[in-house]
Amino acid sequence: MKISKTIAPLALAVALLSGSAGVFAYEDLTTWNTSLGTNGSASVASNFATLTGTALLDKSFNLAAGYKFEFDWLFVAGDELPYNDWATVFVGNNLSTTLSDVATVGDFGVSGWKHFVTTLANSVNGQIAFSVNNLLDDDPLYASSLSVTNVLLSSPNVPVPVPEPGMLLVTATGLGLLAFIRRRKQISAV
């Protein structure tokens, strides 16, 4: 009886753990390069970066087509029109997109946090970059900023976990053992 009390929880644990979850990791932005222009500054942590003035955050990649690229971003306009500061993302030969600018958010406006996601149509053998650009003035009091976080590159070739035949056998055995113990308790209770 003591053995069945030990085996039952063990069998249940094996049955529950027989699957596996997908694994991903956010980009460590401290491994990226920064380039600063006029009144440019960059504050970079492992999963968060803020670029101000005229600044660039970039890294070289060699990625196959089909990768998913995503991140969260926030643009803060530190200026007014006609000084149309802007923020962009550049992904190799796949895209160059203006995320926001002063004209979009308004004078001294804020975009609010946005999520960007795309699947790369072409391979990337080059740079992925975020930039903010301070247009027509050099006054640091009027410098706009771009913040990025949760930068993620997901491979299209990561297979969905499929239980192996051995794990299916262990799972079936564990569930069978649980059924046997339950049935035995029902018979002994009668």
Automatic annotation (TrEMBL):
Transmembrane regions listed in the UniProt entry: 165-181
NCBIfam families reported for this sequence: PEP_CTERM
Signal peptide range: 1-25
Domain of life: Bacteria
InterPro entries: Ice-binding_C
Name of the protein in its database record: PEP-CTERM protein-sorting domain-containing protein
Species this chain originates from: Candidatus Accumulibacter aalborgensis
UniProt keyword terms in alphabetical order: Membrane, Signal, Transmembrane, Transmembrane helix
